[in-house]
Amino acid sequence: MNGLNSEAFVLFDQHILWSDMIGNILGLAALTLGWRRSLLTWPVQFLSGLILFGAFFGHLTGSAGKQAVVMTVALYGWWRWNRDKGRSGSGQIIPRFATWRERAAMVGAATVCTVAVALLFKAYPTLSWDPWPDAYVFVGTVVAMYAQARGLVEFWFAWLLVDVVGVPLAFANGYAFSGFVYVIYGALVLWGMRDWWLRSRSGPQPALELPGAHASEGVSQ
Question: CA-CA distance, 111 to 190, in Å (whole number)?
């Protein structure tokens, strides 16, 4: 892993590390595969997380921890999409919009977890250089991947919100390639959002798995 953490080249006075570059290229590939609703998005995301974990481990423990969580959610996504893909004739998941209850649950969980993680980072300064924005990106990434695993169109909105903070944070912490990739993420997210949005409106809606949900509850558009 030491070789992967060496400098690959310099771009616009920014030092690009091999691990940062390879991990984020795989992250871009995973996002593209997610747009295509390909099951391969999850193993590629797992591999990206593994390489970035090696890049951060030892000096940005909080960021390394984020990648460990990302890999865990990737395993969940793999299981979820394997289970749900059989519910459509195409063998792929059917995107849908979240209900207002699901949206409230995700926003509430994201808010509480961001505060908790930021306080943890502040209590242990070695975990992060920028506790609050790092916690925001950490939790936002996990929420976005969870929403993606459930086939929710809102996962694209979550990625946009992560990008807003992720770009300057990556440059500030010396991971220039991550910053460049986050900019490209923004364009891919907009295209992917449109595709999933249209598919959610044209395809059949899968049954919701909410405790106590009423059959008459509609899917929010």
Answer: 24
Residues 153 and 96 sit within 8 Å (Cβ to Cβ): yes
In the structure encoding, which two tokens stand for residue 46, read together? 């797992």
Cβ neighbours for 15, distance < 8 A, ≥ 6 positions apart: 7, 174, 176
Among residues 72, 83, 37, the alpha carbon closest in space to that of 207 is found at 83
Question: pLDDT for 62-83, tens place per residue?
Answer: 667 778 888 999 999 999 998 8
Q: How far apart are alpha carbons 74 and 77 in whole angstroms?
A: 5
Distance of CA 128 to the CA centre of its chain: 19
pLDDT tens per residue across span 185-206: 777 777 778 888 887 776 554 4
CA 50, CA 31: separation in Å to the nearest integer?
A: 16
pTM comes to 0.75
Q: Assign 17 to helix, strand or coil.
A: strand
